[in-house]
Amino acid sequence: MVDSPQHLKKLTLDQLQQLAGEIRQELITVLAKNGGHLGPNLGVVELTIALHYVFNTPRDKFVWDVSHQIYVHKLLTGRKGRFHTIRSTDGICGFALRTESEHDCYGAAHAGTALSAALGICAGRDQRGTNEDVVAIFGDAALTNGISFEALNNIGNTTKRFIGILNDNEWGIAKNVGAISNYLNRLITHPSYNKLAKDFERFVRRFPKGEIALKLAHKAEEGFKGALTEVGLEPSQSGLEVDGRGGYGNSLIFEEMGLRYLGPVDGHNLPLLISTLQFARTCDRPIVIHVLTKKGKGYEAALKNPEKFHGLGPYDVVTGVALPAKPGTPPNWQDVFGQTMVKLCQKDNSVVGITAAMPSGTGLKILEKAMPHRYYDVGIAEEHAVLFACGMATMGFHPVCAIYSTFLQRAYDCIVHDAALQDLPVIFCMDRAGLSPQDGPTHHGLFDISYVRSVPNCIAMAPKDEDELVDMMFTATHQRHPIFIRYPRGPAEGVPIKDQPRILEIGKAEVIQNFSNTGGRRVALLALGNMMSLGRKVAAQLATEGLDVALVNPRFVKPLDAGVTEFFGRAADVLVTFEDHVLMGGYGSAVLELFNEKRITTPVVQIGWPDQFIEHATTVEDLRNKYGLTVENTVARVKAELAAPVAAKLVGVA
Ligand SMILES: Cc1ncc(C[n+]2csc(CCOP(=O)(O)OP(=O)(O)O)c2C)c(N)n1
After folding, report:
1. What's the CA dihedral at 439, 441, 445, 450 to 10 degrees?
2. Which of 328, 333, 329 is nearest to 468 (CA)?
3. Which residues face 556 on adjacent strands?
4. Which residues are CB-contacts of 64 (< 8 A; sequence separation ≥ 6)?
């Protein structure tokens, strides 16, 4: 299989079509083992081949929105040999990464960034006076995102040369929602579309020896007769003004924003794509090409279930069925969240659920099915989701925003300026708080404690298990302040869930095990949320070594349980804080701030993530081992503290 753009450019049409087949096979086979974004990538095989056929990266720039659909680009830009390592420890990343290849000019994984970033690259080019092409490839769901529109608003008056490819497959992860999606649909199904498409066909047929036709004909012995032979677009002769507005179709929205619109174009018709891109390349006005693709193209199982195959774990290649979880695996946190939402909504009319285009990932789909009128999908629009929730809160509701920790970062100002400043009872259920190992730094939720803890009026908590998650959600619906509950991805702890949840006292920790006063040196372990299981293992290990160990479930990061924390701070010889979060500004920092205020000098060992972006890996364990979030490292550090001279400790010298 080809793995460089130079090689690809030498192929005939037949060979390019064959390449498309080989790429699909490779995607299906490798992802069956590694998991990943199969559907989106199967959908852009021809588009990516056409892009590399027409443009020249790294000189020309491709900016992929989200960049989850970048696998084909990776296969074609020198990463074929390592493709089997995608999303695994020390392997290639599942998203665009500047440090991975010169062909990845801009990194991403959060949606809606491509148009703005590409425009910035255009501005840089124009300032430099160079002439590379810049292509932003964005999905239809990216148009539910505000930033995309901020960019569209700005393109026409910033540059003359900008190429946008709207990759329209009618799906985000779930079915795309909202007015823009309806609009694109109308555009595709508009009665004039077929007519115009035919016009377009007729038009290209008028130029049997178009640029692309000539190029390919020279290279292929056979030439390429049939469909492709006559496809070619000569810009000088293009006469694209058939609708009087400079575009095919009736897509006024782009035209009104100062971009030329071309399309819709069949995104699986390689020759047509090539000629269209060649035309776009010569445009002296920003242009958007509307390309229609099928998510999952070429794999029956993925075509049948676009949502599941948007991104998934390992599966059986023949059946497309996901590999079963090990027997006895506890339910996912997300499922417990979704089921609890249904129960809460059934009992409390003030509760509603809000997702920003992530119904299945967050578990809110369960609410959608059970009580659709209490469920809102607002599109990939986290800022809007939070503001929408704030508005509902002013009307007496308890809106629950189910947003991944990493995506909530985008709505930070809405948290501060709207929810917190007005002290509104919005509940934030921050899924994926902790690692999203195979996705990597763009998806790890490691900053939320820091960014929430510094904001007045906020309450922040983390459950040690799924039963406590239910208690926390129930508690939150009885509060009058912004509340943040963080929990990780994947299976919960496997504890039974009480029939009737209980209201937790705000700011109260749970002492799981107190000192036993056996005379051993005392170690207090304060393990936040899902770190309780590590805390328990450390406790067991230290006990075998004759130490007197206390174990605390802090529950609240804000307000911190000052009484319990101070007590253990004074009683212990060493105190350990555990958090699935960066150490900078996190839970351990909160404890240290309290100790400073109370003049407590007990040494504190902080277990958490360092001040750096954590890469992707196959499993959480791989990363915990690498960064020392382990029993061995914790025990070693506790012992080192216990062995340190007391005088040194008193003056804070390591
Ligand atoms: C800010 C943000 N919110 C949510 C997501 C999760 N997410 C990843 S891909 C995706 C859908 C993208 O749809 P589209 O852009 O149409 O591309 P397609 O997968 O259909 O090719 C979503 C919601 C994200 N990446 N970024």
Report:
1. 180
2. 333
3. 461
4. 70, 73, 96, 106, 108, 114, 137
Q: How many CB atoms lie within 10 A of CB 369?
A: 12
Longest dimension (CA), the chain: 94
Quick one: 50 exposed, middle or buried, by C-beta within 10 A (0-12, 13-18, 19+)?
A: buried
Angstrom CA distances, 441 to 70, 107, 531, 623, 630, stand at 17, 11, 20, 12, 20
Q: Is the C-beta atom of 184 inside 6 A of ligand 1?
A: no
Residue 168 backbone dihedrals phi, psi, to 5 degrees = -100, 110
What atom in ligand 1 is closest to the CA of residue 40?
Answer: 21
**Separation CA 6–CA 59 (nearest Å):** 13
Q: For residue 264, say if its preceding peptide bond is cis, omega within 30 degrees of 0.
A: yes
> Which among 140, 173, 290, 358 is the best mutation to test ligand 1's pocket, defined by most ligand atoms within 8 Å of the CB?
173
pLDDT at 302: 95
Q: In the Cβ-directed half-sphere of 639, how many Cα atoms lie within 13 Å?
A: 12
Tokens coding 219: 């290279």
Please check whether residue 58 is in contact with residue 103, taking contact to mean a CB–CB distance below 8 angstroms.
yes
Q: Report d(CA 388, CA 426) in Å as an integer.
A: 10
* C-alpha–C-alpha distance, residues 15 and 3, integer Å: 14
User: Ligand 1 atom 15: the closest Cα is on which residue?
Assistant: 139
Q: Is 410 a catalytic residue?
A: yes
| Ranges of the chain with pLDDT below 50 | 193-197, 199-200, 203, 208-249, 647-648, 650-654
Q: What is the pTM of this model?
A: 0.91
Q: What is the pLDDT of residue 230?
A: 30
Distance, C-alpha 224 to centroid of its chain: 42
Q: Strand 351-355 and strand 260-266: pairing? A: unpaired
